[in-house]
Design brief:
It is built from 2 helices and no strands. It has helices at residues 2-61, 64-90. It starts with a helix and ends with a helix.
């Protein structure tokens, strides 16, 4: 009977330790996800500023039609790069 009691106590101690570890890992994962979201917002803002700067630069030298065409092509290029990176990250080795 004493062995059974010790086994049950050991089981509960293990469950408590695993619960604490799970809580710690969930907290760490939540922090990492929040940092990724914030960094993604900053990257998108920076990309928007770069595109606005390119637009302002081109508007002085070209007609608006050509500027919009070039800006559209640049945006499509950026989209293609992001799509390629996403697909390459999601591929399993």
């Amino acid at each position: 009977m004493e062995g059974l009691t010790e086994a049950i106590i050991s089981l509960f101690n293990l469950a408590e330790a695993e619960g604490r570890l799970l809580q710690k890992k969930v907290f760490q994962t939540a922090i990492i996800v929040l940092m990724l979201i914030v960094s993604t917002i900053f990257v998108l803002a920076a990309l928007g500023f770069v595109l606005a700067a390119i637009y302002q630069f081109l508007i002085f030298y070209l007609e608006i039609t050509w500027v919009l065409l070039i800006m559209g092509l640049i945006c499509l290029l950026i989209f293609g790069i992001i799509l390629w990176l996403t697909r390459s990250v999601n591929r399993k080795p």
